[in-house]
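Quick log. Single chain, no ligands specified.
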Amino acid sequence: MISLLNSRTTIVRLAIILFFAAINTTAVVYTLTDGNFEISRKSTDKNLLILFHDSSRSNRALMMWKSLGEELEDDLYSDVDFLLGGVDLSKNRGLRLRFGIPYPSDSSTILYFVGNNMHVYKGQGNIDDLVDYAINGYELDLENTEIPVSLDTIDQIVKTLKSAIGQDNRFAFSFIDDLENIYRLRKNAGAGLLILGVALGICLCLIFDIIFRKEPSTQSNKFKRE
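-> predicted structure:
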């Protein structure tokens, strides 16, 4: 069963890699979801210009985005080397929490992913401005940040910590629960507290280890002197 799952995962990843490798233009808006976002992002060496929209309120933003893709087919933009993506916030709770995008919202959000950094686009929204921003305008953006860790990674860390602590230690277990809830609401503060909590736990373990390691050696020295 495990080998079957691994083979299916490999096939999916290979398909995505071949899919992106065959792309020469940004003529299509690729639909990104909680399930395929991370694999898709890591499977291409091109930058990603992604529209986060709410289809439950209006499809106007997505239609504009698709029109942008069609315009980019023009020879005038033949040197454009980035991909267009779209994320429906009404169907992808994980991504909207990960990137801290307000929901519900009447306005859309455009994020530009370059390597491990992301930039929030705040321009005019027309094709020339978007292209200029994607080619080199983003380099002037001083508000770029590292791409937040995916919620799957955070979930795995939380599960590991809870498993190591055990439900018998109610205080520590509740503390991890609180950190997880804080992360869901305020990802930067939650991540910082989570890291701080792990670091504090490691320090306490080292301190206790040193204290309890010294006690037996002291007792053994007393026995030797007697």
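The helical segments are 2-21, 37-42, 60-71, 93-98, 127-135, 151-165, 170-185, 187-225.
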